[in-house]
């Protein structure tokens, strides 16, 4: 009778241990999925929004230059500079990859150069020569912004793949858990019901 109780206890302990072990594995996979989704939102979508807003600021500057509207360009200078600096600060708080950091550093340098050219633009009578320098600088900034936008898309895809792999892991482990529980149940039944035949 005691051996029967021990068999039952061992069988139940084995099932409980299996359930606890799979629970820890599932938690890890769900955490990876959650981190992947959070990263897509916080570090990709929000970063993409900052980039988009910077592109709008740059395009407004390009439009004013193309129209030859110097007075409006100069009036909007400080406000635009402050908005761009706020966007740069916001973007810098997102998680950056190495490549993204390199392009972002280059963007910051290009923007500082733009602000320096704009400052000289405000005080120089030769607007035409400085205007071409401004256009070239705005093109450089646009190129950096486009590179950053491409990085957001590529990193977003990578994070989606991480989440997808974690989901596939969860599916596989769930199927594996079911089969293991079935096999353990069969083994427990065999152990419990097995009665050695006595030889007389």
UniProtKB/TrEMBL annotation:
Residues of the Chemotaxis methyl-accepting receptor HlyB-like 4HB MCP domain: 2-115
InterPro entries named in the record: HlyB_4HB_MCP (IPR024478)
Organism domain of life: Bacteria
Keywords per UniProt: Membrane, Transmembrane, Transmembrane helix
Stored Pfam families: 4HB_MCP_1
Transmembrane spans: 6-25, 172-194
Protein name from the UniProt record: Chemotaxis methyl-accepting receptor HlyB-like 4HB MCP domain-containing protein
């Amino acid at each position: 009778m005691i051996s029967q109780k021990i068999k039952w206890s061992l069988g139940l302990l084995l099932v409980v241990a299996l359930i606890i072990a799979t629970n820890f594995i599932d938690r890890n996979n769900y955490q990876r999925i959650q981190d992947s989704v959070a990263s897509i939102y916080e570090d990709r979508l929000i970063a993409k929004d900052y980039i988009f807003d910077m592109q709008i600021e740059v395009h407004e500057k390009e439009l004013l230059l193309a129209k030859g509207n110097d007075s409006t360009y100069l009036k909007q200078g400080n406000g635009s500079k402050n908005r761009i600096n706020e966007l740069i600060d916001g973007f810098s708080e997102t998680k950056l990859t190495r490549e993204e950091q390199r392009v972002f550093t280059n963007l910051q340098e290009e923007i500082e150069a733009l602000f320096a050219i704009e400052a000289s633009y405000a005080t120089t009578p030769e607007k035409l020569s400085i205007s071409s320098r401004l256009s070239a600088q705005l093109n450089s900034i646009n190129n950096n912004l486009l590179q950053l936008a491409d990085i957001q898309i590529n990193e977003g895809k990578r994070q989606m793949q991480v989440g997808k792999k974690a989901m596939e892991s969860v599916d596989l482990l769930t199927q594996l858990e079911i089969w293991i529980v079935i096999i353990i149940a069969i083994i427990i039944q065999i152990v419990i019901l097995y009665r050695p035949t006595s030889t007389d």
